[in-house]
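Attaching the record inline, Q. Sequence:
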Amino acid sequence: MAQEHIVAVGLLTNRDLERLGSGFRRCFPVSDDRKFEDLLRAIDEADAASLRARCSSDQQNKMPPAR
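Structure, as predicted:
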């Protein structure tokens, strides 16, 4: 049997798992021990910066209103 490749890793809440339903086959619970707090904060900040950059780019690429 060929080895399966990981295609995604995510942090999900119990509510997220409920929404995914029984089709979601594998999850590994992690404790909330604050070991990854700095990493998660950096990811959130990078995501927010990326969103701001995309929104700014979208605004700059809009055509002016027709007169």
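The chain is about 50% helix and 0% strand. The mean pLDDT is 83.

More tomorrow.
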